[in-house]
C-alpha cells in the first residue's frame, strides 16, 4: 500500500472505531459508545431475528480490523476511545426481543454491567490477538446480558416481548 493509502485507512479506522468521535467523550466512553448500539438496535427493530443477525454479523467482522488498526494507532491493546466494539455488540442483546423502552433500558444496563465487570470467560477473550480480543469480550457481554434479560422476560415479562 502507498503511504497515502495507509494514512487514509488509519484515519478511517480511527473515525469508525471511535464512533465518529463519541469515543473521545468523557467520562465512560464505553457507555457513550453503547448509546450508538441502542440507535442501531432501534433501527433494526422491524426486522425478524434472522435479519438482525444477518446485518450484525458483518458489522462485527468489520470491527475486527477496524478496532485492531485503531488500537495500533493509539498504541494500546484496548484503548478506551475505541467504542466500535460496544456499538457493534450491544444490538445482539435485543435480537430475540421486540423493541420497547423497558427492554432497551434493561438490556443497556445489563450490557454495561457485563462489559465493565467482564465475568469469566469474557475476561479471557480479551487476550485474543488484535481486534479479535477487543470485539470478543463485548460479544460475550452481550450474550450474558441477553441471557439475563431472557430470564427476566421469562419470569416477569409478557409474551409480546419475544421476537421469536
Would you kindly provide a written description of the structure presented here, covering whatever features stand out?
The protein starts with a helix and ends in an 8-residue tail after the last helix. It has 7 helices and no strands. Helices cover about 65% and strands about 0% of the residues. It has one domain.
What is the topology?
Elements: H1 3-17, H2 29-43, H3 49-74, H4 84-89, H5 101-117, H6 122-125, H7 130-156
Descriptors:
0% strand; 7 helices; mainly alpha; single chain; 164 residues
Distance between the termini: 46 Å
Q: Compute the average pLDDT.
A: 90
The percent range for strand residues is under 5%
For the biggest sheet, the summary is: none
Give the radius of gyration: 16 Å
Helix content class: 55-70%
Order of helical and strand elements? HHHHHHH
Structural class of the secondary structure composition?
Answer: mainly alpha
Topology, number of strands: 0
In the predicted model, the low-confidence regions spanning at least 5 consecutive residues are: none
- Number of alpha- plus pi-helical segments: 7
So what's the overall shape?
globular
How many domains, in number, for the residues? Answer: 1
Summarize the structure.
With 164 residues, the chain is mostly helical. The chain has helices spanning 3-17, 29-43, 49-74, 84-89, 101-117, 122-125, 130-156. The longest helix has 27 residues, at 130-156.
Amino acid at each position: 500500500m502507498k503511504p497515502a493509502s495507509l494514512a487514509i485507512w488509519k484515519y478511517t479506522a480511527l473515525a469508525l472505531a471511535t464512533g465518529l468521535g463519541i469515543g473521545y467523550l468523557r467520562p465512560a466512553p464505553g457507555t457513550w459508545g453503547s448509546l450508538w448500539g441502542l440507535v442501531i438496535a432501534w433501527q433494526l427493530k422491524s426486522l425478524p431475528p434472522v435479519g438482525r443477525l444477518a446485518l450484525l454479523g458483518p458489522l462485527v467482522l468489520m470491527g475486527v480490523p477496524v478496532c485492531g488498526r485503531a488500537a495500533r494507532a493509539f498504541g494500546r491493546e484496548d484503548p478506551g476511545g475505541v467504542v466500535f466494539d460496544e456499538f457493534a455488540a450491544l444490538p445482539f442483546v435485543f435480537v430475540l426481543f421486540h423493541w420497547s423502552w423497558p427492554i432497551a433500558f434493561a438490556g443497556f444496563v445489563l450490557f454495561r454491567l457485563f462489559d465493565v465487570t467482564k465475568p469469566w470467560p469474557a475476561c479471557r477473550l480479551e487476550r485474543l490477538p488484535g481486534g479479535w480480543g477487543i470485539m470478543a469480550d463485548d460479544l460475550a457481554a452481550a450474550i450474558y446480558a441477553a441471557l439475563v434479560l431472557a430470564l427476566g422476560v421469562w419470569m416477569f415479562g409478557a409474551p409480546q416481548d419475544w421476537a421469536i
